[in-house]
Design brief:
Layout (H helix, E strand, L loop, with lengths): L1 E8 L6 E9 L9 E5 L7 H18 L7 E4 L4 H4 L2 E2 L2 E2 L3 E2 L4 E2 L23 H13 L4 E8 L1 E2 L1 E6 L7 H7 L3 E5 L7 H10 L3 H4 L5 E9 L5 H17 L17 E4 L3 E2 L7 E5 L6 E2 L4 E6 L8 E5 L4 E6 L4 E2 L6 E5 L14
Parallel strand pairs: 3-4, 3-9, 9-13, 11-12, 12-14
Antiparallel strand pairs: 1-2, 2-4, 5-6, 7-8, 10-20, 11-13, 15-22, 16-18, 16-21, 17-20, 18-19, 20-22
Bound molecules: zinc ion.
Length: 351
């Protein structure tokens, strides 16, 4: 394994950012290769500690000559976001300089060719970071971008072209749900990882061996040693299932038994009023149409000071907010409905 340090120039003299990159060279040039990164949204740490638990497993496999395809690991992909604090609160989701979400604005290339990447020398630091991350990841058969939600189940976003071929990956990782999407107009990292292949002939795109996914490792507070160990084992099982690592002690993953739904089935439930949220449901709950989801206390102590929200359709609660203060129009939770949401939104993913 080799460690190298990437440097990203900042937006003013004397400022630059760095992050380590770990490379494992495979023994088989034809073997499937993998790229893993965590904390692109810099405050989302469940994936960071999962990678911390995974690294000794990779080093053991390397020492035993069992790594077939090359592996690149970037445990903390966003040093810019990691350094952003505003009045004591960490701000790892948006670049403060440009107000751009760190998981939007990646270039959507016409083909998986690093020569097509834009020159961001005169762009902003976050653009330079995005170009570099894409450059590191392009060409790998397996690209995993580890995130987390606010409070939630473990779930994956997957492009519809990769499903059900990726069911073995979802089973190997032991996630609860898979959300399928089909068009990225915003330039998420996942979108930038799969879009270049969509117009290639099938024998070149090789969707049977390709993996690109945004992994939502539950909630922001689920940074936990036991979960990290279990998630590391899930990542390892995926790498074995897809032939990146050889491990005859592991059996092939069974079939995926979790929830699979298209993005259009998600109801985001915007809050009708601002106030304090009293939830009646939590992630994992199955709800019937008309079930009480939450009550917003907007005029405490006054008659009519509470507003209730009900499920527009039957489904499963995927996520909810970790904070209990809400403004009107902000989303209260993600309900994965059994059918298309009347409020279906376009876009790749809601991460
Ligand atoms: Zn995220």
């Amino acid at each position: 394994m080799q460690k190298s340090i990437e440097r990203i120039a900042g937006d003013s003299e004397g400022v630059s950012y760095e992050f380590p990159v770990f490379r494992f060279d495979g023994t088989d040039k034809a073997g499937s290769s993998a790229y893993l990164q965590a904390a692109l949204h810099a405050g989302e740490l469940p994936g960071v500690v999962a990678i911390d638990a995974l690294m000794p497993m990779l080093e053991k496999a390397e020492a035993e000559g069992r790594i077939k395809g090359s592996i690149i690991v970037v445990p903390q992909a966003n040093p810019i976001g990691r350094a952003q604090y505003h009045f004591g609160e960490h701000q790892g989701r948006f670049h403060l300089g440009t107000r751009t979400n760190f998981n939007r604005g990646f270039p959507l290339l016409a083909a998986p060719d690093v020569e097509l990447l834009p020159d961001t020398t005169l762009g902003t630091a976050d653009q330079r970071l995005k170009t570099r991350l894409l450059q590191l990841s392009i060409g790998h058969d397996i690209v995993l971008d580890l995130h987390c939600d606010d409070e939630g189940l473990a779930y994956l976003y997957v492009h519809a072209r990769l499903w059900p071929a990726m069911a073995d990956c979802a089973a190997a990782m032991g996630v609860d749900a898979v959300i399928l999407w089909d068009e990225d107009t915003d330039g998420t990292f996942e979108g930038a990882s799969i879009t270049p292949y969509l117009n290639l002939p099938a024998e070149v795109a090789r969707f049977d061996r390709r993996v690109a996914t945004t992994v939502e490792y539950r909630g922001i507070l689920d940074v936990d040693g036991a979960l990290a160990g279990a998630d590391a084992e899930g990542l390892y099982r995926l790498l074995v299932a897809r032939g990146v690592i050889l491990d005859q002690a592991l059996s092939t993953p069974g079939s995926f038994t979790g929830i699979v739904a298209p993005l259009e089935n998600i109801d985001m439930m915007p809050a009708p009023r601002a106030g304090a949220v009293l939830y009646d449901v939590k992630p994992g709950d199955r709800v019937a149409k008309g079930a009480l989801l939450a009550t917003i206390v907007h005029a405490p102590g006054e008659a009519g000071g509470r507003t209730q929200l009900f499920a527009p359709q039957a489904g499963i609660i995927l996520t909810r907010r970790s904070r209990r203060i809400i403004r009107a129009g902000e989303d209260l939770l993600k309900l994965v409905g059994d059918s298309k949401s009347a409020d279906a939104r376009s876009g790749t993913l809601e991460d």
